[in-house]
Amino acid sequence: MVSLAHLWLPILLSAVFVFIASSLIHMALKWHNSDYHGFSNEDEVRAAITKGSPTPGQYTLPYCADHKDFGTEAMKTKLKEGPVGFMILRAPGPMTMGPMLFQWFLYILLVSVFAALVLVHVFAPGADYKHIFHVTALVCFMTYAFGLIPMGIWWGQPWRSVMKGMVDGLIYACVTAGTFGWLWPR
User: Angle, to 10 degrees, between the axis of helix 159-183 and the axis of helix 97-119?
Assistant: First the structure.
């Protein structure tokens, strides 16, 4: 029987390899740069948002406190005229990548730990690489990619961006699966 303790190396290395892969995707290939757009009147938009003194959080436009209010004429007019959207605001100040990258690494590590938890219940020592790869890739793909789908459904994230994120998830899943298959106890 394989225990979680036997899998410390594939857990750690898969997290490191996925972190490297995600860094290459986002910093070298930059294929997500086209997912984001600026406002042509950014200074005016920033001034309008700042004028409202919003705190960090999630906002909707137009805002509707109760779902039943969507039926009012005023809300119907706002929705028809637009804009309609969701916005997430952070606290003002420079973006400090260190803490965010650390949190991202912890998330990747958590995905690898949970993949390992599934694998120890399925495979014995000496299991076939192909089977380990297949199960690990499925578990990790679901973890990395499926959570993006609701962003397209409920938040209106462009489906092209969702699909690109899912391709990232497939890459991360395969990197993790390859690492577990390679380092599976014999």
Answer: 60
